[in-house]
From TrEMBL:
<dbReference type="InterPro" id="IPR051828">
    <property type="entry name" value="HAD-like_hydrolase_domain"/>
</dbReference>
<dbReference type="GO" id="GO:0005634">
    <property type="term" value="C:nucleus"/>
</dbReference>
<comment type="similarity">
    <text>Belongs to the HAD-like hydrolase superfamily.</text>
</comment>
<dbReference type="Pfam" id="PF00702">
    <property type="entry name" value="Hydrolase"/>
</dbReference>
<dbReference type="InterPro" id="IPR036412">
    <property type="entry name" value="HAD-like_sf"/>
</dbReference>
<dbReference type="InterPro" id="IPR006439">
    <property type="entry name" value="HAD-SF_hydro_IA"/>
</dbReference>
<dbReference type="InterPro" id="IPR023214">
    <property type="entry name" value="HAD_sf"/>
</dbReference>
<dbReference type="InterPro" id="IPR044924">
    <property type="entry name" value="HAD-SF_hydro_IA_REG-2-like_cap"/>
</dbReference>
<dbReference type="InterPro" id="IPR011949">
    <property type="entry name" value="HAD-SF_hydro_IA_REG-2-like"/>
</dbReference>
<protein>
    <recommendedName>
        <fullName>Haloacid dehalogenase-like hydrolase domain-containing protein 3</fullName>
    </recommendedName>
</protein>
Amino acid sequence: AMLRLRLLTWDVKDTLLRLRQPVGQSYAAEARAHGLQVQPEALGRSFREVYGAQSRRFPNYGHGQGLSSRQWWLDVVKQSFRLSGVQDEAALAKLAEKLYRDYCNSSNWEVLPGAAETLSRCRQLGFRMGVVSNFDSRLEAILSQCNLRHHFQFVLTSEAAGFAKPDGRIFEQALRLGGARPEQAAHIGDDYSRDYRAARAAGMHSFLLRAAGQGEGPEVPPEHVLPTLSHLLARIEK
């Protein structure tokens, strides 16, 4: 049943890379370095609330609403600290700048088990590869810092595309960049609606990274589920 694939597109967060520690812990540690005591749990809750509200109000980093993704993130960080009781605006501005830069490098991100090996093997097998991620412009730098950038012919972020998954237009751009028709391409990601279902709606093949015991999601044919990234090769070997 070998799929005639030419192009593989990849989600990044929680597919290839994950945060080394929860956001609340990173933010609290940075606050301590600035002489501020904030509880990591409180910060984590504040961040989730603020990030959700900002995403609804200014989708895709405020694209088309006059915001830069940098400004979008600086607002999220400052608002998260304000909600956690920090009032010192000068300190907030410093913290936001520092955290915005820190999330650009490998001190905050780690490569998931099997990711580097799987990407190398896919490239050896001759697949074209690209990234399709709901992310901002820092993604190129993050992938380089984590030594994954060289695997990909293109990195397409929602900020650059102007559309965020599950919008099919981001996948259409990826197919153009990868020079493949939908049926020649497969997308790999960990989110059922934004990755698996959205890529299939765009006419592509898709595989859902879903660790065993990750809770019951919607039904997906077992041959489309990857318990780990290493399982991909058996599904796509030419």
